[in-house]
Structures are given as C-alpha cells and as structure tokens.
Amino acid sequence: MDVKIAKSWKPILEQEFKADYFKNLVSFVKKEYSLYTCYPKGKDIFAAFDYCSFDNLKVVIIGQDPYHGVGQANGLCFSVKPNIPFPPSLQNIFKEIESDIGKPIPENGDLERWAKQGVLLLNATLTVRAHQAASHQNKGWEKFTDTVISQISQYKKDVVFLLWGGYAKKKAKLINSQNHYVLTSGHPSPLSANRGYWFGNKHFSKANAFLKSRNLPTIDW
Predict the structure, then answer these.
(1) How many domains does the chain have?
(2) Among this protein's residues, is 65 annotated catalytic?
(3) Where is the active site (predicted)?
(4) Cα angle at 29 between 25 and 34, to 5 degrees?
C-alpha cells in the first residue's frame, strides 16, 4: 500500500504518515491485501481525499468501515460502484433525500458526485477483509481518521458534520461546535431507520440551509 494522498491534504496529514502507528498500519494492510481479498481496491483506499479537496471541503459524513461484499466498496462511505445494487443504508439515505428535498432516487449509488462538490465521505476504518465486517478495526485507521476530523475542525470553518448512529456521534468530541455545524441522528441502516431514528431528520436540507447562510455553495444531493 503506497500512501498516495491528494496534494491538498498532504500538509494537513503528512506528520501522520511518519508516525510509528501509521507505519505499522501500512505493514498490516499490505500483509492483509497480499494474503486475502480485501476492499476497497488499493488505489481506492484514499478515494475520499482524492475526490474532495481540503480547500473545497464543505460537508463531512462519517461511516464505520467499508462494505465487505464483492465489488461494493469504492473508498467513499455509504457509496457503491454504478452497477452495484444499493445496500439497505444507502437505499434509506436516498429515501430521506427524496422526502426531504424532493429529489428522485438516482439510478446508481456512486456518491463520487457528492465528493466532487466538497462532501468528505470518510469511513473511520478505510479497509476491510472480504465478507468479514470490522476485520480491520483497531489496527490504527481510527487514530488516523480521528486526526483527519480534528484537523478539519481546527483548520476549517463552517463545515457541516453529519453524524449518523452511535459510532459516528462519538466523533462529536473531536469537533469544535462553535466553528462548525454538527447534525446527529440515528443510522440509516434498517435496524435504526425502521424504529424511527433516521427518517425525517432533514439533514440534507438543513446542511444546505446552513451553507447558504454562510454564502457557501450548496450541495446538489
């Protein structure tokens, strides 16, 4: 695994790449990818940073770890490649967008279009072994992605953070809520959504209303 991260993020994160924990993480990931099928593809591990530059960043959405089914993960949380059926959480995200802002459910679930507008689609863990959820947790990824969140909080202003579910909500402690707009709700997974913790949160219209109030471009969800 070569750490090739987009230029705009290098000054923000280069210290992390020199840290011992990160070197150990790289060794672990390289070994896993050589012994097992892992997702996403090596070139897509840092896709969230490739598509969303630090300068253009407006919204952060935090996921837990990549999809572990064949061909699903593309390096952006909740997103799948164009020809892959929507996983249940993504389906519920699109349903909420439809009821919140009236936008019809799209033909494909590739959220690259959001990322290019300034939405950082960040999984807390950036890799996973095929068919083994959470298999790369607690190996160092969380330390890295927590630093990403802290650095955004420190060096940016007026970023919208969408924290869905218990795991993502814990990241609120890394964010200065005086300088940013933090929205929380249940997770879009069926387990949470069907109990009434997701639908109706109106996060997509609220995010855009905040951006508009700061004279920033809104997101075409």
Answers:
(1) 1
(2) yes
(3) 65
(4) 150
